[in-house]
Amino acid sequence: KWLEGLCLEKRVFYRLISGLHTSINIHLCAKYLLEGTWGKPHWGPNVKEFTQRFDPVETKGEGPRRLKNLYFLYLIELRALSKVAPYFERAIVDLYTGNLEEDAETKALLLNFFKETKSFPMHFDEKSMFAGNKKEAKSLKEEFRLHFKNISKIMDCVGCDKCRLWGKLQTQGLGTALKILFSEQEIQNLPENSPSKGFQLTRQEIVALINAFGRLSTSIKELQNFKVLLQENR
């Protein structure tokens, strides 16, 4: 309820971070270290742990909100992928893998992937964000950028190397998605056969964007698996 007193931009930011946290929690529950046999570790879904983190009763009503925020984050990144397609469709853009045949194949697969994202209906209009006073909008955008920078720095303190890697990657992927959504005009005005000036993505940002969306997709798939397991346990 405390979110009701915040502006749209800050509510969106909270929901995105909550969705990211939810995605991580679902992965932890889905690949949980269970009791092994004969000293061998066994990893698999832990329904009890999932219930503790998302059940309405166990979480005092917060669990369903967290899951809604996961879908909200998914839609945001899906929309960003559909918006960035024109950037990659230009003839001047190549994906350098070190092999000419693989370069062409990789780009074809990526463009096909973007085509698929465009077939989904969009349920969020980012144009409603930062639409007020230009000075305040600029200040809020800078606040967004600094928050993501701080979150990335916090990830450096995580002890598990694998957790730190995926945490930083998903954070950068989300940051890249927002960068795309707030640069729609620049993307539309990109020249077809000359280097980008108004908008540019680094190789690291592209890798983070695709992999972050992959992790979210896996989270939603695992969520469906938990729904089946919960029904079976009733």
Report on this model:
The structure is a single chain. With 234 residues, the chain is mainly alpha-helical. The protein is 67% helix and 5% strand. The chain is built from 8 helices and 2 strands, in the order H-E-E-H-H-H-H-H-H-H. The chain has helices at 8-30, 47-54, 62-89, 100-118, 134-155, 161-181, 184-188, 203-232, and strands spanning 32-37, 40-44. A two-stranded antiparallel sheet has the order 1-2. Helix 3 (62-89) runs antiparallel to helix 8 (203-232). The longest helix has 30 residues, at 203-232. The chain starts with 7 loop residues before the first helix and ends with a helix.
Widest sheet: strand order?
1-2
Distance between the termini: 32 Å
Count of separate DSSP helical elements: 8
Main beta-sheet strand count, sense and barrel state: 2 strands, antiparallel
- Low-pLDDT stretches are none
Whole-angstrom Rg: 20 Å
Shape: globular
* Oligomer designation: single chain
According to DSSP, the number of beta strands is 2
Class by alpha and beta content: mainly alpha
Mean pLDDT across all residues, rounded?
84
Helix content: 55-70%
- Beta content: under 5%
**H and E string:** HEEHHHHHHH
